[in-house]
Design brief:
binds molybdate ion; Molybdopterin biosynthesis moeA protein, domain 3; Molybdopterin biosynthesis moea protein, domain 2; binds ligand LQZAQKY5; Molybdenum Cofactor Biosythetic Enzyme, Chain A; about 20% helix; six-stranded mixed beta sheet; 4 domains; 7 helices; alpha+beta
């Protein structure tokens, strides 16, 4: 059995970046930039007024000064003639500030009568002018490759006059659930059957991370059935199986996949839940074999599958970040496997939930966090700091 850390390092070595594609900005939310984004424009492209008021020469900004209003500059327009001593231009937010006017006095600080303004007693000192290029200038690299695009990044790309973004192609993930006992949600299970739940949690995880999940038919516990499903996975970047990973007579994923060309990299990780995890390469795809127990499948999804997808998208190849919290309840010594305990955060800190059986989705859904216990961790008392992964 290898450690979680080693398993993750090996998984990163099994995947590669998916490459780039160009998508319109409307479709870029949540995608990861594949190339640095360079500004096609300077913003603002001109010195712009930040307020509604009057543009004038800074020397004319004296309490009581009377100035003649010679024209108007509105956003989208402007006023061509330079402002001379004793003159002002009516100006609005976003308008180009006329040449030679180094100051905008806000309209609240003046008295206007006809085409004259009188500066009030205490005009604000700030120029109220946004300099040309104050945000960015043409040719600047504004976002690096590997940046996930949220609303702010997408608005920035638009302001840079880029109508589309070069983003990482979404990893295609083929999902195969295995087991004679499984039926799809909504079907009528036979007396010894259960509903296949894992795939739906995994699909949610994959698509939230930026992948495309292809759910293949349920593979029955026969070489033929699983073989056919593996054939259907052709073209995927990553093939994920679920179940059939352990040591029972019907746990045939490793042997059938190997017969179809899987080069197995590892099988079994010193963790709980998730021990029977396996991985390797199948032709051009990476293969990840998850255990069938529902909590094991989803915990392994969080600890291994998500970081793999991130690496394929060009994000940093790293383990899920952990946080620290005081422990709310005592814990006995841990065994030789890294334990990911379902836990709830309360005022006194993190408390492991009562049952840690890896079949209990109700407990996983009630958990806020996975409390991570290193192999061989000694007994812990309330108040001691432990590591956890938020859920
Ligand atoms: N003798 C041993 N038995 C087991 C060991 C072991 O080391 N020695 N390991 C146990 C551990 S740990 C796990 S985890 C499970 C994993 O086994 P498999 O990956 O082979 O999974 P299955 O046997 O196919 O299924 C386990 C369990 O999960 C249910 N299941 C399967 N797929 C789904 C699905 N898509 N949705 C919902 N539930 C699913 C399945 O019905 C079983 O109840 O092995 C232990 N055994
Ligand atoms: O590892 Mo199994 O995943 O403990 O239930």
């Amino acid at each position: 059995m290898i450690s979680v850390e080693e398993a993750l390092a090996r998984l990163f070595a099994l995947v590669e970046p998916t490459g780039a594609e160009t998508v319109p900005l409307r479709a870029a939310a949540g995608r990861v930039l594949a190339r640095p984004a360079i500004a096609r424009r300077t913003q603002p492209p001109f010195a712009a007024s930040a307020m509604d008021g009057y543009a004038l020469r800074p020397q004319d900004l004296r309490p009581g000064a009377v100035l003649r209003v010679i024209g108007e500059a509105a956003a989208g327009g402007g006023h061509d003639r330079p402002v001379q001593p004793g003159e002002a231009v009516r100006i609005f937010t976003g308008a180009p500030v006329p040449a030679s006017a180094g100051h905008v006095v806000i309209q609240e600080d003046v008295l206007r009568e006809g085409d004259r303004i009188t500066i009030g007693d205490r005009p604000g000192a700030g120029s109220n002018i946004r300099p040309a290029g104050g945000d960015f200038t043409e040719g600047m690299q504004m976002l690096p490759a590997g940046r996930r695009l949220g609303p702010a990044e997408i608005a920035l790309l638009a302001a840079m006059n880029l109508p589309a973004a070069d983003v990482a192609r979404k990893p295609r993930v083929a999902l195969i659930c295995t087991g004679d006992e499984l039926v799809m949600p909504g079907e009528t299970p036979g007396p010894s059957q259960i509903v296949a739940s894992n795939a739906f949690g995994l699909i949610a995880m994959i698509e939230a991370a930026g992948g495309i999940a292809h759910l293949l038919p349920i593979a029955r516990d026969s070489e033929d059935s699983l073989g056919q499903c593996l054939d259907l996975a052709a073209g995927a970047d990553l093939v994920v199986t679920c179940g059939g990973a352990s040591v029972g007579d019907h746990d045939i994923v490793a042997s059938v996949a190997q017969a179809r060309g899987l080069s197995l990299d590892f099988h079994k990780v010193a963790m709980r839940p998730g021990k029977p995890l396996m991985a390797g390469r199948m032709g051009r795809a990476a293969m990840l074999g998850l255990p069938g127990n529902p909590v094991s499948a989803l915990v392994c999804g969080r600890i291994f599958l998500l970081p793999m997808l991130e690496a394929m998208l060009g994000l940093p190849a790293r383990a899920v970040p952990r946080r620290r919290s005081p422990l709310a309840r005592p814990l006995p010594a841990n065994g030789p496997r890294e334990h990911y305990m379902r836990a709830a955060m309360g005022p006194a800190g993190l408390a492991p939930l009562a049952s840690q059986d890896s079949s209990l989705l109700s407990v996983l859904a009630a958990a806020d966090a996975l409390l991570v216990r290193p192999p061989g961790d000694p007994a812990r008392q309330p108040g001691e700091e432990v590591e956890y992964i938020p859920l």
